Amino acid sequence: MNDRGGSEDARWLAAAAALAARARPLSRPNPGVGAIIVKAGRVIARGWTQAGGRPHAEAMALAAAGEAARGGTIYVTLEPCAHKSERGPACADLVSQSGLARVVIGCMDPDPRTSGAGIGRIRAAGIAAEYLPSTACEQSLSGYLTTKRLGRPEVTLKLALSLDGCIALASGESQWITGAQARAHTHAMRARADAILVGGGTLRADTPRLDVRLPGLEDRSPQRWVLTRGSAPEGWHTLPSPEAIAGMEGVLHLFVEGGAHAATAFLAAGLVDRLLIYRAPVLLGGRPGLGDFGLSSLAQAHGRWRMIERRQLGSDTLEVYDARNSHEG
Q1: Rounded-to-integer distance, Cα 222 and Cα 319, Å
Q2: Which residues are responsible for catalysis (predicted)?
Q3: Binding-site residues
């Protein structure tokens, strides 16, 4: 394949990955997948995983395309499933019977029921099927891949800090350190999570709602969890320790929002995959956002985090960091 063809394929896979964002988190417990059918350089149909995990993205796109799919190329973020389900046919079979000329896959499925079998079944049907590794597709599937590789949800830790690293005044007052734009962005990030967690102290002190209050996204409010060995209010779930996230059934993306004890506990356990640091241009001289999470030397602190995004939100700044090697398993 020439360079232009490869770059075009990468562009369509990135578009499918962006489309997959519409599925998150309503597709749980299934991953949010995106699919785009292209013919003669034009989009024929699109699809993404529906609420509850079915229909899958490929099924949606093929149904929308109908006979127009014949001779086209489908770009899909994850290898089409090959296993049987009472909830619907295997996507590898649907693709094999579609009349498509070509399939381009951005990420192979680590699920042993499909891994390699999906693409193999499509090729056996006489359809050209290629795996083109796509960073965009991997990122769009990060929660699913983390659960399959590490046996736990992907964890994002959010910190809203002053310039001197505080989350509250010495008196405990903390609402609000950041401005309206940063808070709205936080709600958008909540809407992408399956579950949101705070520490017991934060729950008792602030009685947070932890819902999504953005117009049109209210139905995407995540499950509410509290880090405690005690009880929780009605409508909340308890997590006795950070390590217990391995038992959070159906949760692919966990958003840890506060406070200092919960943040420190997750960092100490080595269970933070991504940091969202909202920094306000204020000095508080108050309560620090983090405690001691086990570093014994400065050398241990270096090389752990890689900045992947920085943006201005009104007067506040957001910095996003990925943990290096967090998905090795």
Answers
A1: 23
A2: 58 (proton donor)
A3: 56, 81, 91, 160, 174, 176, 190, 202, 206, 210, 213, 257, 259-265
